[in-house]
Fold this protein.
Amino acid sequence: MSRNVLVVEDESMIAMLVEDRLVDSGHTVFVAPNVQKAMEVLRDHAIDMALLDVNLAGTPSTPVAYELEARGIPFMIATGYGAQGIDEAFRDRGCLQKPFRMSDLDHAIQQLERQLPDRVDQVSARTTSSMRMM
């Protein structure tokens, strides 16, 4: 089932790899390299789930995590810092430890999909695409 996935990642190579994998899996991907762009995506698009880098060029992605939580959107944190780098309020969200294999990413997305309510696929009529917000 196609989902709208927000990927908040400031490292362009990682963002590109994640984006390519998710698009190849049939998802529509919105990549945001910083908190401001992520908030714009959340304002302008119906996001189903998200993957957040915990540290965006020295700025924590915590404001995005709080917004996702307020909207009931499942998300997972991606970090190379381990659990200690994750805000305590979000440690139960799951962690995709960097560096990760594509199979780890696939598993993370499957975990997020299990958190989604059952619903008719509202985006199946759309063409799967990728939208880079830079």
The chain has one domain: 4-116. Residues 40 and 133 are 9 Å apart (CA to CA). The longest helix spans residues 12-24.
